[in-house]
Design a protein that fits this description.
Number of strands: 0
Low-confidence stretches: 174-188
Structural class: mainly alpha
Mean pLDDT: 79
Helix content: over 70%
Order of helices and strands: HHHHHHHHH
Number of helices: 9
Distance between the termini: 38 Å
Strand content: under 5%
Amino acid sequence: SYNFMFASFAAMGLYFSLSPTDLMGGALAKLFGIAVAGAMLAVFFPAGGTWWKERLRNGLPRLCIRVCRRKTAGLLPRFESGVRDLVLQFSSNALTSPEEETDMVRRAFAVGDLGRLMIEIRVGLEQKVFPPAEEALLRDLPEALARLLEKPDRRRLRTLLETLGARLEAPLETTDADTDGSFRADRPGGASCLLHLLERTLPRVTAAL
């Protein structure tokens, strides 16, 4: 708007009055217009209204989509701080009911588990910590999950869960040293652990969308 105003004032042959009365009148008219626009915004889109709450709720799956596609350097702290920020914004509004706050926290926990799991998978893939056979089971999951969260529907979810189930049935070699109860992605069978966690976490997230 400033560029348009400057261009109109700089036009050739433009009559421009430097009268204090005209300047004050124009300034008051602009202030009045801003006040009317603010009042209309407050009436139709009140702060803390339904649209605002839905915007914060929809921000959670968008964080997971970023986790699936952004660079992994510093991704975990940015993701966790983003989840906390959305929950705090939602809870700090006086119009938020206890039931809505509880629902938002439940969504945040589910999204947080899924996001951290996908970060672990992506970091493991980038650092080549998985055996080749297991890496093949995980390579396309981040993009598949991002597409599901962009356009969530039951068919996409069912397809992805069936894919996870089929990959969990794939035989993977393990040794006695890999069955001490601890988890490490670089051990044989580490991909199976991640796939099990993803299979359990994914329905919780999609149910909250």
